[in-house]
Structures are given as structure tokens and as C-alpha cells.
Amino acid sequence: MSQPKQTPVAVPFVVARAIAAVISAIIFGVVLCVIGFLLCRGLIDTTLGVIPSYSVGFAFAVLLSFVPLFAGQGARVGLLDGYTQQRFYLPERRFFGDPPDPAAAVSSNNRPSNPWRVGAVASVLLGVPAAALAFTLAPRLWPDGLSLGSFVPRLAALGAVLAGTTSLLCTGALFRDEARLSASQRRFEGTVGAYRVLHHVLPQGLSNLVINAWVAVPLFPHPVSTPGATVPIALVIGDAFVSAVVISIAVWVGVLPHVDLDKRSGVIAAQPTAAPSRGRQLGLLFAVSVALAVCVYGVSALTGIQGLSFWPFLLWRAFAFGGYAAWVAQRSATWALAARP
Length: 341
Known about the structure:
The chain is mainly alpha-helical. The protein has 10 helices and 6 strands, in the order E-H-H-E-H-H-H-H-H-E-H-E-H-E-H-E. It has helices at 13-39, 53-84, 115-141, 148-169, 173-179, 183-186, 192-219, 233-265, 278-303, 310-337, and strands spanning 11-12, 88-89, 231-232, 271-274, 307-308, 338-340.
């Protein structure tokens, strides 16, 4: 005798949405704590022992402007992932995998949004105003600057609030409409190569280009206006290795669950190719990181370059690490799309 279909143990959509917002706030609070602690050491005025007010505003503005980009993309991917695994149901008690919903025929132009596009819109609507406010108000609120112990928790708290707000706003009515789409409506209209570029390579490459350009400011060991100041080549080599390792892990961790979700929800089909194990993938990325640092050393030894001034250093970080992030995204997406591990 056939068993009756059991309803999955799941929570209402409103509860899942609130949980996602809390998780997003916690993650970005912790991440900004770490970033703030690492970067603010380059912003501290060694004479006064504090971060000047203009540097506080600059740091807040740049970092907060990117929070909605990643929080919006992460909220869409994370919540839809929970829906495909039937961890929550929509208000009409609909689960992923139920028969197609007729109402979906008139929703969201019958196509889901690229999660990175959702994050980009959130960055414009939330991140840019938040950055402008931070840049304008920081010198007025803290005219004497902030110490390390004051800068980090304030940055983390603002980032957590902004990330939680972004998560809530990016998972509302439009998300519900897109969640109700059938597999055929979700399917990406284009080649696998176009999917990799639009959903992974371009977003990761462009965002890392801008972020790594900004990171050059606190990493530069002298005031930017100092005549003849340079970054020693040893620091450039060490920065190349550390940054490549961090980017490899961050992009790899971000791409794999995104691709897995897209395969499971019908956006893209698994490809009839094989991929190395997860451990070997990380090993390869680590080896490439080492090779990048060795190449920088080799070029400096052949050319006799002893250091980089500010603008060459900034442009090097922007284009080298933006390009590297794009390559890691391309490789990671190709591995994740493979049907066989």
C-alpha cells in the first residue's frame, strides 16, 4: 500500500526571511570586524594614535557601499536554497517541487533575476546613500577621530544593520514571485559560457577590482602625498601571495553553492565533464597563488624594481586581483557545473 505524501517539516516564509536577515547581519558583522581590524592599522595616525575623522568617513563609506551588493546576492541565493530544500513554505503553503503555479505566468516577467543584479540594485539604493551619510557625518560625529577599539565595533554594527536590512528588502514580494516559477521558466537562456560570465566571472571580477584598489590605500606604508614614497617590493610580493589565497577561498566558497543551487533549481544543467575533488581544487588554487607571488618576484629581479609608488601599486592591485578573482570564478563555476566529481 502506498504511503501518503508527507508534508516537509518547515517554517513559514516570514520566519525563514527573518532568520536569513539575522544570519546575514551576524556574518557581515563578523566579516567587517576582521576587515576593520586589519585595515585600520594602515589608517591610524601614529602621532595621535587614532584614525583621523576623514579616514573614518572614507573607510565607512567604501566598506558600507559594498555590503548591500554581497548581502543582497547572498540573501537571494541562501533563501532560495532553503526553499529548494523545502525548509520553508510560501504564504499559500507552497513548497518547491509542487505542480507549477498558474499565478507564476504573470509574475517577474516569467524569469528569475540574477542574484548579483539584485545585489547591485541594493548597493545603489542602500549602499550609496549609506556611504554618503557615513562620509558626511563621520567627521562631525567624531571630529577627533576614533581609536582602534572604537572604530571596529562601530563599523561592524553599521554593517550588520545594513546587511540585515538589505536581506529583508531583497527577499520580499519579488522573491516570492520568482520562487513560484517552474523549472522551465528558471532556465538560463544562453550558453553555459554566458552563464559563467554573467553569473560569476563579471560580478566577482568587477567587485574585486574596486575593493582591491581601495585596499591599496591603507596598505601603502606612507602618506599618499609623500614625494618619492614607495611600497617595498618584498611587501608587494607578500601581498600578492596573501591576497591571492584570500581571494581564492572567498570566490570559491561563494561560487560553488551558487552553482549548486542553480543546477538544483533548473537554471542551468550539469555538464558532462569531470572535476577534481574539492580538496584538489583548493590545492590547485593555492599552487596558483604561490606561482603568482613567484612571478612577481621574478619580474622584480629581472627589471630591478625595488618598489612601487602609490598609483602603480593601486593599479596593480586593482587589475591583478580583479583579473585573478575573475579567473577563480571561471574555474570554480566550471568545476561546480561538472556532473562528476
